[in-house]
Amino acid sequence: MEGMIGEVRIFAGNFAPRTWAFCEGQLLAIAQNTALFSILGTTYGGDGRTTFGLPDLRGRFPISPGTGPGLSNVALGQRAGGENVTMTQATMPNHSHPMNVDSGAGTTNEPTGNYPASNNVQVERGGTVYDVNSFAASPNASMGAGAVGNTGGSIPMNIRNPYLGSYYIICLQGVYPSRN
After folding, report:
1. pTM of whole model > 0.85?
2. Are 40 and 171 in contact (CB under 8 A)?
3. Residue range 11-20, pLDDT digits in tens
4. Which domain holds residue 48?
């Protein structure tokens, strides 16, 4: 399978073909791979005297270096991103939770199918009944502290795109690319 030295391809097999290697960040000897080293340098690791690194694309998706309108600059070999993110109150987008209320006096303690009323609502928790002032009588007033609150467990959520496991391979020997 002839390729251009430094070319990266997706390969569906479970082995790297001859003259190709998996892109798993491994270090190679410069002395045995001078052509590839002249292309990659130490962009992906190595000491630059005896070794250099291959790109590590395990669990990663390559993107072109540079920038575009509204995008951050990406350097060649730069690693960024992650599989999970933990949302906190500080990182959550601005949003609201509008709520309907009834301006009349409440007639039931059953919340199903009903709206909060203008008077205190009784809530039972752990065998104790509490009066909760769900909102003040004046417009645009804040709700009582017991009416709403923060919730959630700050558990990391997966943000990874759907994927199919395949190997990225890089050409070690082949046609040396010419520069324009």
Report:
1. no
2. no
3. 999 999 999 9
4. 1-60+165-180
